[in-house]
Amino acid sequence: MHVHRSAPVRYAILIGTLLGVVAASLTTAGCNSKSGSQVPNGSYSADLAVMNNGSTNLGVYVDGDRLGTVPPGVLNSFNVFGGTRTVHLQEDAGNLIYFGTYTFFNDQILRIDYQPGLHNLEVVNNTGATIHVLIDGREIADVQPQTSSRLVVAPGIHDVHFRSRGSAFADFIGTINFPSPSLGGGQVLTYGP
What we know:
about 50% strand
């Protein structure tokens, strides 16, 4: 038995198939991310290179989008779409680590050499409430009550604010010139009594 379909039905099937193929190819090419994608090392389109000097896999996030993973002892490259972007790194099953806000251009490569324990800001929260740490108006971390957290801030001059959870207002802590991250630390800021 032969089924005859009308021309509009055949065109609808053809267009649906073509759109599916195009969507699948864009997704596999990494175009599902609004921030960038992982690319082969040495690629002309690389804007970000991450060297993992740790002992576990390292997730790379730009503006909240996961771009890929860097195994221990490996340097991987990523294409980050132009503009001002926030970079986070995450060890396997660990917390996201803020690594700064950078402006990406097509002709510059930002290289991050990740080392566990690397930081240039330690926030000590001596209050009974969680505090939100804001750098240049962007929230980068929460610090739980009666704890401290080591953070990485892009080197240079930045405005620092702390905001208690539930508060609509943030306290201005200061304008601080952050050094490059190191294992020895950097700025220590204490909030509370």
